[in-house]
Amino acid sequence: MNTKRLVATTLSSLALLSGVSLTSCQNKAERVDLKSREDSLSYAFGFTVGCNYSNGMDRIVPGGDTLLNREAIIAGFITAMRGDTANTLITLAEARELKDNFFEDLRLQKAYKEAEEYRKMKVQNDVFMEEAAKETGMQALPKPYEKYDGPCVLMKELAPGRGDTIGSKKFVLVNMTIKLANDTVVYSTDESKKRMMPVSRISPRGLKQAISCMRKGGKAKVVVPCELGFGRQPKGPIPANSILVYDLEIERVFDNEKEARSYNREMYLRSIGKWESPAAPQSAPSVATTEGDGIPATKATE
Questions:
Q1: Is 301 contained in some domain?
Q2: DSSP string covering 7-53
Q3: pLDDT tens per residue, range 23-80
Q4: What is the residue range of 176's domain?
Q5: Is the pLDDT of residue 290 over 60?
Q6: What is the pTM of this model?
Q7: pLDDT > 90 in the chain, percent
């Protein structure tokens, strides 16, 4: 039995479930007379589904543009839509089994590839972490949890800050620059987009651990191993298995969500030029309590 055809037949029945969007379709369509609004609507559904599938096969199945047989997809789709069970080439149960096996194979291949890439990078990462640990003032933070057996976060205090350590229940405003092990800068704080955020929701884990150890006004250089960073998955401009080097400054610390939300609102309104500073409070008169009846007498503040 042709595997490509079976995969195509199965996936074609899923096309109606995918997001439909009207895109350009160059292939000639079968001639159909659109005699009513219902006919036009029906054709529109089929056309948009077909265009979306045709232009996005790689999004539905990795390598779909080369793996799948388009004619078989069309044949399978027509068979399913017409309910022509007498002429179907496989049963629905067989189609589902084939689909499940196909995607399980893809998952295993991806996992194997990720494991291979991790093993290759680990040698370089271990060397980098060993060298970073030798830097004057650099200290290793405790293991994030008991059973963790990977490299720990390294932290070098550049300015001690003031007050108590932040912990995990407060809200912080952090200035940061993130570099890769090769000194490539992948992120730097945008002044216009700075927001207070709860320490408990900071990601990745290694960054959250480091910030929780700092104080308001403190500055530090932090080296997060990939195991406590984003791991084997790429994250935007950050490749998989990357060590992350942070330059951190804790600008503000708030104790509760209400204060943090108020600050974020102010920063947002400032960024769009709609912030109005609250009026300065007027001086209140001083109050002196009279003897006898206890009625307070006011005295203008000089």
A1: no
A2: HHHHHHTTGGGSPP------SPPPP----SHHHHHHHHHHHHHHHHH
A3: 444 445 467 788 899 888 988 888 888 887 777 777 767 666 677 788 888 888 888 8
A4: 138-259
A5: no
A6: 0.62
A7: 41
Residue with tokens 């084939």: 98
Residue 271 lies in a domain: no
Confidence of residue 22 (pLDDT cuts 50, 70, 90): very low
> Number of structural domains, the chain?
2
Q: How far apart are CA 223 and CA 204, in angstroms?
A: 12
Spatial CA neighbour of 233 closest among 243, 220, 242: 242
Helix (H, G, I), strand (E, B), or coil: what is residue 65? helix
CA gyration radius, the chain: 31
First vs last C-alpha separation in the chain: 99
> Tokens for 148?
């963790």
What does the pLDDT read at residue 279? 60
CA dist 46 and 257 (Å) reads 49
Domain co-membership, 215 together with 150: yes
